[in-house]
Amino acid sequence: MGVYDFEHAIDIAWCPGCGNFRILKSVKDALEELELDPRIVVFVSGIGQAAKTPQYMDVHYFNGLHGRTLPAATAIKASNRGLTVIAESGDGDMYGEGGNHFMHAIRRNPDITNIVHNNMVYALTKGQASPTTRQGFVTPVQTQGVTEEPFNPIAVAIALDASFVARAFAGDARQTTDIIKKAVTHKGYALVDIFQPCVTYNKVNTYAWFKENTYYLDDTYDPSDREAAFRKATEPGRFPLGVIYLNRNKSVFEETLIAYRHDDRPLYQRTVDMGVLKDLVDSMRT
Question: Less CB within 10 Å around the terminal CB: N or C of the chain?
Fold first, then answer.
């Protein structure tokens, strides 16, 4: 337990046994072990069961539109660099509706943590296939089984040279907590894709299935080797868990902004200079 407590007494709307409960605990444990002050922590989420996560913690949070989590998180961090900003939502919100923002957040490399609850199904809207659903999976919509190859967020992130790419399994609380801590303390964009069983709408990718189909990278693995990381991301068979790719040499988005060139104060503390504001908007468009 850290100096601060992120516990928030409120009824939780998830199904009993949902993997989201374990992720919520790992996130709280990570923040408390890092001894972060909840007053400087901001969570941003979109729409979905995973997107409810910030509501169950004692933190500042912003729930936005479906798929629009990352631009809001990027803007919040850019406006006040002293905040710890965590974008947290599901695989549909981040990789489906938010797929374009996912790619461009990686390109910009803002200093935010991106936690994705990956249950391989749309759990809020009754079990349709999500971007990460496995081929052959039968749903009320895909009645003959999913035919498309699933989206590979790890491979895409590495291909775009994300500065931190990791994967965890909700069933392993201690390992998940440790990975989240590494992501939060990393300077730059950090992706943590977490396998999270949906006990109601996904009877295939269960706790047992994820346990059998994953393995942890050992201490001999070098996450700075991008080619090796990409091979890990695309290898057939079991999925690797841990920090898969790490690049500490990328420029951080907020540090490139003209608005901070001569003034390190958060933007809300300043008198608006329309010229500086225009330069800031222009820099975000590039």
Answer: C
Q: Token pair for residue 14?
A: 């998830």
Share of the chain above pLDDT 70, in %: 95
Domain(s) labelled CATH 3.40.50.970 in the chain stretch across 19-250
For residue 9, how far is the Cα from the chain centroid?
A: 24
Residues 211, 205: Cα–Cα separation, whole Å: 10
All residues at 6 or more sequence positions from 11 whose CB lies less than 8 Å from its CB, including other chains: none
Neighbours of 163 (CB within 10 A): 22
The angle formed by the CA atoms of residues 71, 60 and 13, to the nearest 5 degrees, is 95
**Local structure of residue 127 (DSSP, 8 states):** S
Q: Say if residues 169 and 175 touch (Cβ distance below 8 Å).
A: yes
Grouping H, G, I as helix, E, B as strand and the rest as coil, residue 113 is strand
Q: What's the whole-model pTM score? A: 0.90
Contact 89, 48 (CB under 8 A): yes
Fold of 19-250: Rossmann fold (3.40.50)
Q: In angstroms, rounded to a whole number, what is the distance separating the alpha carbons of residues 40 and 76?
A: 12
Q: Are residues 69 and 45 in contact, defined by beta-carbon separation less than 8 angstroms?
A: yes
